Protein backbone atom coordinates (compact mmCIF):
# COMPACT_ATOMS: atom_id res chain seq x y z
CA UNK A 1 0.00 0.00 0.00
CA UNK A 2 1.20 3.57 -0.73
CA UNK A 3 1.09 6.11 2.11
CA UNK A 4 -2.33 6.95 3.48
CA UNK A 5 -4.04 9.98 1.89
CA UNK A 6 -6.85 11.89 3.53
CA UNK A 7 -8.51 14.40 1.19
CA UNK A 8 -8.49 18.01 2.49
CA UNK A 9 -11.85 19.64 3.29
CA UNK A 10 -11.53 21.72 0.12
CA UNK A 11 -9.32 20.62 -2.75
CA UNK A 12 -6.52 22.98 -3.83
CA UNK A 13 -4.19 22.56 -6.76
CA UNK A 14 -0.85 20.84 -6.09
CA UNK A 15 1.66 22.15 -8.63
CA UNK A 16 4.25 19.65 -7.52
CA UNK A 17 2.37 16.44 -8.33
CA UNK A 18 5.07 15.58 -10.86
CA UNK A 19 2.98 13.78 -13.51
CA UNK A 20 3.86 14.30 -17.17
CA UNK A 21 1.02 16.79 -17.69
CA UNK A 22 1.40 18.55 -14.31
CA UNK A 23 2.58 21.83 -15.80
CA UNK A 24 -0.28 21.97 -18.34
CA UNK A 25 -3.31 20.83 -16.35
CA UNK A 26 -5.23 23.41 -14.33
CA UNK A 27 -8.70 23.38 -12.79
CA UNK A 28 -10.02 26.20 -14.99
CA UNK A 29 -11.00 26.58 -18.64
CA UNK A 30 -10.60 29.35 -21.20
CA UNK A 31 -7.77 31.10 -23.05
CA UNK A 32 -4.46 31.61 -21.27
CA UNK A 33 -2.78 33.73 -23.95
CA UNK A 34 -3.69 35.81 -27.02
CA UNK A 35 -2.74 34.17 -30.30
CA UNK A 36 -4.61 33.80 -33.57
CA UNK A 37 -4.56 30.47 -35.41
CA UNK A 38 -2.75 30.15 -38.75
CA UNK A 39 -5.03 29.71 -41.80
CA UNK A 40 -4.42 27.97 -45.12
CA UNK A 41 -6.23 27.90 -48.46
CA UNK A 42 -8.03 24.55 -48.28
CA UNK A 43 -11.76 24.31 -47.49
CA UNK A 44 -11.12 22.48 -44.20
CA UNK A 45 -8.76 23.81 -41.54
CA UNK A 46 -7.67 21.24 -38.95
CA UNK A 47 -5.83 22.02 -35.72
CA UNK A 48 -4.53 18.82 -34.21
CA UNK A 49 -1.79 16.45 -33.12
CA UNK A 50 -1.31 12.77 -34.04
CA UNK A 51 -2.60 11.34 -30.76
CA UNK A 52 -5.29 8.66 -31.24
CA UNK A 53 -8.00 11.35 -31.12
CA UNK A 54 -6.12 13.37 -33.72
CA UNK A 55 -5.49 10.36 -35.99
CA UNK A 56 -9.22 9.66 -36.23
CA UNK A 57 -9.78 12.86 -38.19
CA UNK A 58 -6.73 12.74 -40.48
CA UNK A 59 -7.50 9.10 -41.36
CA UNK A 60 -11.11 10.11 -42.12
CA UNK A 61 -9.98 12.98 -44.36
CA UNK A 62 -7.51 10.74 -46.19
CA UNK A 63 -10.25 8.11 -46.70
CA UNK A 64 -12.52 10.78 -48.20
CA UNK A 65 -9.73 12.06 -50.48
CA UNK A 66 -9.01 8.46 -51.54
CA UNK A 67 -12.66 8.24 -52.61
CA UNK A 68 -12.14 11.30 -54.82
CA UNK A 69 -13.90 13.83 -52.57
CA UNK A 70 -11.85 16.93 -53.48
CA UNK A 71 -13.86 19.14 -51.11
CA UNK A 72 -12.25 17.22 -48.24
CA UNK A 73 -8.88 18.90 -48.93
CA UNK A 74 -7.44 20.21 -45.72
CA UNK A 75 -4.67 22.17 -44.08
CA UNK A 76 -3.57 20.45 -40.86
CA UNK A 77 -1.76 22.65 -38.37
CA UNK A 78 0.09 21.28 -35.38
CA UNK A 79 -1.17 22.11 -31.89
CA UNK A 80 1.55 21.23 -29.43
CA UNK A 81 -0.45 20.35 -26.32
CA UNK A 82 2.71 19.85 -24.26
CA UNK A 83 3.48 23.54 -24.86
CA UNK A 84 -0.07 24.65 -24.01
CA UNK A 85 -1.03 25.74 -27.54
CA UNK A 86 -4.57 24.46 -26.95
CA UNK A 87 -5.04 27.42 -24.58
CA UNK A 88 -4.46 30.17 -27.19
CA UNK A 89 -7.37 32.57 -27.77
CA UNK A 90 -7.62 31.39 -31.40
CA UNK A 91 -7.89 27.71 -30.45
CA UNK A 92 -10.35 28.34 -27.61
CA UNK A 93 -12.60 30.19 -30.08
CA UNK A 94 -13.00 26.99 -32.09
CA UNK A 95 -12.92 24.59 -29.13
CA UNK A 96 -13.77 26.09 -25.74
CA UNK A 97 -12.78 22.70 -24.24
CA UNK A 98 -9.11 23.27 -25.29
CA UNK A 99 -8.54 19.77 -26.64
CA UNK A 100 -7.39 18.62 -30.06
CA UNK A 101 -8.71 17.88 -32.65
CA UNK A 102 -10.72 20.91 -33.80
CA UNK A 103 -11.87 21.73 -37.32
CA UNK A 104 -13.21 24.76 -39.19
CA UNK A 105 -15.23 24.20 -42.34
CA UNK A 106 -14.64 27.36 -44.37
CA UNK A 107 -16.71 26.15 -47.32
CA UNK A 108 -19.97 27.13 -45.61
CA UNK A 109 -21.28 30.74 -45.99
CA UNK A 110 -20.34 31.28 -42.38
CA UNK A 111 -17.44 29.08 -41.27
CA UNK A 112 -18.59 26.22 -39.04
CA UNK A 113 -16.49 25.13 -36.05
CA UNK A 114 -16.52 21.43 -35.20
CA UNK A 115 -15.00 19.93 -32.07
CA UNK A 116 -15.06 16.51 -30.35
CA UNK A 117 -13.42 13.94 -32.60
CA UNK A 118 -16.52 11.72 -32.78
CA UNK A 119 -18.61 14.68 -33.87
CA UNK A 120 -15.99 15.64 -36.48
CA UNK A 121 -16.23 12.12 -37.96
CA UNK A 122 -20.02 12.32 -38.03
CA UNK A 123 -19.95 15.84 -39.54
CA UNK A 124 -17.61 14.77 -42.35
CA UNK A 125 -19.49 11.50 -42.99
CA UNK A 126 -22.81 13.35 -43.30
CA UNK A 127 -21.43 16.28 -45.27
CA UNK A 128 -19.82 14.06 -47.90
CA UNK A 129 -22.15 11.04 -47.73
CA UNK A 130 -19.46 8.41 -47.09
CA UNK A 131 -18.40 5.93 -44.38
CA UNK A 132 -21.76 5.95 -42.58
CA UNK A 133 -24.47 3.59 -43.84
CA UNK A 134 -27.71 5.25 -44.91
CA UNK A 135 -30.06 2.43 -43.90
CA UNK A 136 -31.34 3.03 -40.35
CA UNK A 137 -30.37 -0.27 -38.69
CA UNK A 138 -26.86 -0.33 -40.15
CA UNK A 139 -26.36 3.37 -39.40
CA UNK A 140 -27.50 2.90 -35.79
CA UNK A 141 -25.08 0.02 -35.29
CA UNK A 142 -22.20 2.23 -36.49
CA UNK A 143 -23.37 5.02 -34.17
CA UNK A 144 -23.60 2.53 -31.27
CA UNK A 145 -19.90 1.84 -31.66
CA UNK A 146 -18.93 5.45 -32.31
CA UNK A 147 -20.58 6.49 -29.04
CA UNK A 148 -19.06 3.43 -27.35
CA UNK A 149 -15.59 4.59 -28.36
CA UNK A 150 -16.12 8.16 -27.19
CA UNK A 151 -17.27 6.87 -23.81
CA UNK A 152 -14.74 4.05 -23.46
CA UNK A 153 -11.43 5.45 -24.71
CA UNK A 154 -11.07 7.78 -21.69
CA UNK A 155 -10.79 4.63 -19.51
CA UNK A 156 -7.98 3.44 -21.76
CA UNK A 157 -6.25 6.82 -22.19
CA UNK A 158 -7.07 8.84 -19.08
CA UNK A 159 -7.25 5.73 -16.89
CA UNK A 160 -4.96 2.88 -17.95
CA UNK A 161 -2.51 4.89 -20.10
CA UNK A 162 -2.22 7.69 -17.58
CA UNK A 163 -1.43 5.47 -14.62
CA UNK A 164 0.62 2.86 -16.51
CA UNK A 165 2.74 5.26 -18.58
CA UNK A 166 2.52 8.86 -17.31
CA UNK A 167 1.91 9.02 -13.54
CA UNK A 168 4.99 9.91 -11.47
CA UNK A 169 4.87 6.51 -9.69
CA UNK A 170 3.36 3.09 -10.40
CA UNK A 171 0.28 2.99 -8.16
CA UNK A 172 -1.13 -0.52 -7.92
CA UNK A 173 -4.78 0.34 -7.25
CA UNK A 174 -5.51 2.49 -10.35
CA UNK A 175 -3.34 0.30 -12.61
CA UNK A 176 -5.28 -2.78 -11.52
CA UNK A 177 -8.63 -1.09 -11.86
CA UNK A 178 -8.01 0.36 -15.33
CA UNK A 179 -6.21 -2.74 -16.63
CA UNK A 180 -9.26 -4.80 -15.70
CA UNK A 181 -11.50 -2.40 -17.63
CA UNK A 182 -9.13 -2.15 -20.61
CA UNK A 183 -8.96 -5.95 -20.91
CA UNK A 184 -12.74 -6.14 -20.69
CA UNK A 185 -12.95 -3.67 -23.58
CA UNK A 186 -10.38 -5.66 -25.62
CA UNK A 187 -12.41 -8.83 -25.03
CA UNK A 188 -15.60 -7.05 -26.11
CA UNK A 189 -14.01 -5.88 -29.37
CA UNK A 190 -12.51 -9.33 -29.97
CA UNK A 191 -15.96 -10.91 -29.66
CA UNK A 192 -17.57 -8.29 -31.93
CA UNK A 193 -14.86 -8.84 -34.55
CA UNK A 194 -15.16 -12.64 -34.36
CA UNK A 195 -18.46 -12.38 -36.24
CA UNK A 196 -18.01 -9.17 -38.19
CA UNK A 197 -15.37 -8.12 -40.67
CA UNK A 198 -15.62 -4.54 -39.47
CA UNK A 199 -16.75 -3.07 -36.16
CA UNK A 200 -20.21 -2.05 -37.38
CA UNK A 201 -20.79 -5.13 -39.59
CA UNK A 202 -19.87 -5.76 -43.26
CA UNK A 203 -18.89 -2.20 -44.11
CA UNK A 204 -15.82 -0.19 -43.16
CA UNK A 205 -17.14 2.94 -41.44
CA UNK A 206 -16.47 5.81 -39.05
CA UNK A 207 -16.75 3.25 -36.21
CA UNK A 208 -13.53 1.57 -37.44
CA UNK A 209 -11.91 4.96 -38.01
CA UNK A 210 -12.74 6.02 -34.44
CA UNK A 211 -11.74 2.77 -32.73
CA UNK A 212 -8.58 1.78 -34.63
CA UNK A 213 -6.32 4.65 -33.46
CA UNK A 214 -6.97 3.60 -29.84
CA UNK A 215 -7.59 -0.14 -29.71
CA UNK A 216 -5.93 -1.03 -33.03
CA UNK A 217 -2.74 0.78 -32.09
CA UNK A 218 -2.89 -0.81 -28.63
CA UNK A 219 -3.31 -4.30 -30.13
CA UNK A 220 -0.36 -3.68 -32.47
CA UNK A 221 1.87 -2.66 -29.55
CA UNK A 222 2.01 1.00 -30.57
CA UNK A 223 0.40 2.55 -27.50
CA UNK A 224 1.82 2.85 -23.95
CA UNK A 225 4.37 0.07 -24.58
CA UNK A 226 1.83 -2.25 -22.96
CA UNK A 227 1.46 -5.13 -25.45
CA UNK A 228 3.00 -7.76 -23.18
CA UNK A 229 1.37 -6.47 -19.98
CA UNK A 230 -2.09 -6.59 -21.59
CA UNK A 231 -1.31 -9.83 -23.46
CA UNK A 232 -2.72 -8.29 -26.66
CA UNK A 233 -1.92 -11.42 -28.68
CA UNK A 234 -4.67 -13.25 -26.82
CA UNK A 235 -7.30 -11.31 -28.84
CA UNK A 236 -6.98 -12.95 -32.31
CA UNK A 237 -9.98 -11.31 -33.99
CA UNK A 238 -8.94 -7.88 -32.77
CA UNK A 239 -5.42 -8.62 -34.08
CA UNK A 240 -6.80 -9.60 -37.49
CA UNK A 241 -8.83 -6.38 -37.74
CA UNK A 242 -6.05 -4.14 -36.37
CA UNK A 243 -3.63 -5.41 -39.04
CA UNK A 244 -6.23 -5.25 -41.82
CA UNK A 245 -7.05 -1.60 -41.06
CA UNK A 246 -3.38 -0.66 -40.68
CA UNK A 247 -2.78 -1.80 -44.27
CA UNK A 248 -5.23 0.72 -45.75
CA UNK A 249 -3.49 3.43 -47.72
CA UNK A 250 -5.53 6.21 -46.09
CA UNK A 251 -4.60 4.90 -42.63
CA UNK A 252 -0.90 4.87 -43.51
CA UNK A 253 -1.28 8.47 -44.71
CA UNK A 254 -3.55 9.85 -42.02
CA UNK A 255 -1.62 8.46 -39.05
CA UNK A 256 1.52 10.50 -39.85
CA UNK A 257 -0.18 13.89 -40.14
CA UNK A 258 0.68 16.24 -37.23
CA UNK A 259 3.04 13.60 -35.84
CA UNK A 260 6.26 14.82 -34.28
CA UNK A 261 7.68 11.58 -32.89
CA UNK A 262 8.69 8.16 -34.18
CA UNK A 263 10.68 7.35 -37.32
CA UNK A 264 11.64 10.09 -39.77
CA UNK A 265 9.28 8.64 -42.42
CA UNK A 266 6.26 8.89 -40.11
CA UNK A 267 6.62 12.51 -38.98
CA UNK A 268 4.77 15.30 -40.74
CA UNK A 269 4.14 18.27 -38.49
CA UNK A 270 1.89 20.19 -40.96
CA UNK A 271 -0.02 19.00 -43.99
CA UNK A 272 -1.29 21.29 -46.77
CA UNK A 273 -1.54 18.97 -49.77
CA UNK A 274 -1.18 15.30 -50.72
CA UNK A 275 2.44 15.81 -51.81
CA UNK A 276 3.41 16.67 -48.23
CA UNK A 277 2.47 13.14 -47.14
CA UNK A 278 3.98 11.50 -50.25
CA UNK A 279 7.32 13.17 -49.53
CA UNK A 280 7.50 11.83 -45.96
CA UNK A 281 6.30 8.30 -46.80
CA UNK A 282 8.84 8.06 -49.63
CA UNK A 283 11.60 8.12 -46.99
CA UNK A 284 10.44 4.76 -45.62
CA UNK A 285 13.30 2.27 -46.09
N1 LIG B 1 -13.39 13.85 -26.19
C1 LIG B 1 -12.36 14.58 -26.89
C2 LIG B 1 -11.03 14.28 -26.27
C3 LIG B 1 -9.92 15.07 -26.90
C4 LIG B 1 -8.65 14.98 -26.08
O1 LIG B 1 -8.64 14.44 -24.97
N2 LIG B 1 -7.56 15.52 -26.62
C5 LIG B 1 -6.30 15.52 -25.91
C6 LIG B 1 -5.21 14.87 -26.75
S1 LIG B 1 -5.64 13.23 -27.19
C7 LIG B 1 -5.88 16.95 -25.62
O2 LIG B 1 -6.03 17.82 -26.46
N3 LIG B 1 -5.33 17.19 -24.42
C8 LIG B 1 -4.85 18.49 -24.06
C9 LIG B 1 -5.24 18.88 -22.66
O3 LIG B 1 -5.88 18.08 -21.97
O4 LIG B 1 -4.88 20.00 -22.27
C10 LIG B 1 -12.39 14.20 -28.37
O5 LIG B 1 -12.72 13.06 -28.67
O6 LIG B 1 -12.10 15.05 -29.23
UniProtKB/TrEMBL annotation:
Residues 138-277 form the GST C-terminal domain. Pfam families: GST_C_2, GST_N. PROSITE patterns: GST_CTER, GST_NTER. Gene3D superfamilies: 1.20.1050.10, Glutaredoxin. Residues 45-132 form the GST N-terminal domain. It comes from the Bacteria. NCBIfam families: PRK11752.1 (NF008731). This is Glutathione-dependent disulfide-bond oxidoreductase. The lineage of its organism: Bacteria, Pseudomonadati, Pseudomonadota, Gammaproteobacteria, Alteromonadales. The gene is yghU.
Amino acid sequence: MTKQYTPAKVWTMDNQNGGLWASINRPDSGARHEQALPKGKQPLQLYSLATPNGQKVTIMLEELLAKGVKEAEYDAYLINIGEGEQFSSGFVEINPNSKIPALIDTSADNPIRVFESGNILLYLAEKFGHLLPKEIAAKTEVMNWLFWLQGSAPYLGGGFGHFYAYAPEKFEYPINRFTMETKRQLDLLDKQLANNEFIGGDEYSIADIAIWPWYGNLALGKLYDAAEFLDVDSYPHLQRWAKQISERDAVKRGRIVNRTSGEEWEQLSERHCAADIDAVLSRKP
